[in-house]
Amino acid sequence: MSTRHKAIKATLDRGYASEWNDDHIADFTDEIEHVCNLFTPAITTEWDTGETAGGTVPTITLVGAAGSGHVFVVFNTGATTGQLSSMRHELNGAAGNITSLDDYPMMTFTMNISAIHTAGKVIEAGLVPSATAPFTANQDGAYFRVNNNLLYAVTGDGAAETATSLGAYDAYAQYRIEVVSVGGVDKVNFYVDDMDNAAAVHTTNLPNADLTMKVSVISANNVDSTIHIDGVALNILRKNA
Is this model's pTM higher than 0.85 or not? Predict the structure, then answer.
């Protein structure tokens, strides 16, 4: 849900009650916003953790010393190769897809990469089908990946993928994935920190399935992988449909 803001007043200009009322109307036809601040309720109220295997089930935790820490969802794999820590957004209290491509979904999240092995695919975070196992090759979806210590923007259609290297990742950054159609051309925009200028734009191997929000981390070479997430949002851009 979005709130319209259209009356713009200069300093000392007179405003009217009718303008205020018209300017603050919840508009369900334009955009729906779903924000997960990940403070409370319990993570299992909105998120399914059933794909976790061997690793620690993601939990909401105050990371750092009391009084100076920060609340994160902590993903921790343990130091055995192939252990997985993962969460996916639920649909009506169970694992399931929450958005169609026709909704032109946009996912925004922040991620702190604390410890990972520098070789192999170790992180996937973004919009993917709920039932697809993490780290499946060529999976449908639009997501960020960390592979061989580099950050990638990835789109896949189930048969092939397009992966763009974005270089070295920042330890803590904000990410956005935007599925859009401009001038009849479908594409996926990827943003990292700079929300105005896309870090990558994909027009090939675009997803063709319903999607949910999912974050997964896996261990490699017997090295523990740990990441933190402190906010996730989904916008359904009905204005583009």
Answer: yes
